[in-house]
Amino acid sequence: MSTTTLKPRLSLFDSLSIVAGTTIGSGIFIVSAGIAREVHSPALLLSVWIAASLMSLTGALTVAELAAMMPRTGGHYIFLRESYGGMCAFLFGWTIIAVVHTGSVAAVSIVFAKYLALLVPEIHSRLHIGFATISGEQLIAIALITSLTMTNVRGLHAGRATQNLFTVVKLSALVLLVAFALVISPNHGALHANFGSWETFLGHGALSLGVLPAFGAAMIGAMFALGGAENLLALGDEVRNPGRSLPIALITGAGAVILLYLLINLAYLAQLPLLGNPAAQDAFGRGIAGAQSDRVAAATMQVLWGATGARLTSVLVMISVVGCLNGLILGGGRLMYAMAHDRAFFRIASRLNHASVPGFALAIQALWGSALVLSGDFSDLLNYMAGAGSLFGVLGIAAVFVMRVKDPQALRPYRAWGYPWIPALHLAGSLFIFIDLLVVKTRYSVLGLLVVSCGIPIYLWRQKRITKSETISDSLVIAAPFSSASTESP
User: Which fold has domain 3-453?
Assistant: First the structure.
């Protein structure tokens, strides 16, 4: 069955909703605390987000060319296959499916459960089943993955309706948070602590080269919070007028999220001092860097509205996480579907159900994501694979240059803006982040790359089996006429 049997039902609004809804997950609510501890300066906090935003925008401007040129189910898997061949695409696909994507599904679902536990403490209880112990949070996370998967198995209409609803609700809530924190009721104590003078705004040593390692490490968190648009690329066959809609959705969606993220960080700085005392009794005293469990948004809303604000934050994060998780489920199922058609994944994942969606792929994704939830160590897996994911990101951007040389006559409804300088700038930034990961998280990154390299013999073995199978099939086809002739002869 060809991938073209997937029906193009996603409008431009649906595509924008997937980009924005999947990008805005839980990261923006917590990442700024870690960045503040790294850079110790309001100016550098904002600079980290600006630099990460430029990376995100230049990435969208670049990869949109590949999306418009090859609007196929599988997204980056297809781009890497066409640019570098089957082995690179195979290693990417299995890494993403086995760890990075399904690990993200598990992590995001656990975030939902943890915030729900703040409202319903009974969820912390544990259930003993034989020798195993399952927490209430794990059960909630698995239930969320299962329910969203079942929704998407019903058809693309149900999946996109869920995505649109949660994206609109969370964007509206975030805009209201920015309006109250930054415009209607700013905290003058926080404004003085962060913007009272150039010295307080810039911080000590903000302009020295010594801040570069910390700056690079802080950018990793910001880039994580800005990731997610690739899930739309995986649905290329299901987007209407993809040559136009995909570039517009990627670039406009990235721009809107960037603007919102910068405003949210200004809202944090308008309510909390950047640095405080982690042992302080109140949210204002702890500041952004010392926010409990890094929940900066909760601390901000607590300063605004007290305990009610903290509870509202939990609801907002859960809404945001559901929209993000739904987008992840949409994209991951299509990646499995594309790989199955290349015989690089279980063949059953290549089947469409009665609703014209890859139901078996979605079910496999839910099962493995749930298994990672129960394992409890998916966070370490994601750390191990961060370097590999960054390397594939570099290869994905470089694919624009490769395809310009490899297939210069191909139809390109959109050409990367500012080519070759903007793509080259993004490529340099991506290489910097990859090298920074090797330096900052050497053990994790090197081991992760070694794990990925273990897929090479698996790929070679798979290719050998495919070649053998094709040889047998060809032999049968050749032999069939002779066999038929001898049977029919008198």
Answer: Amino acid/polyamine transporter I (1.20.1740)
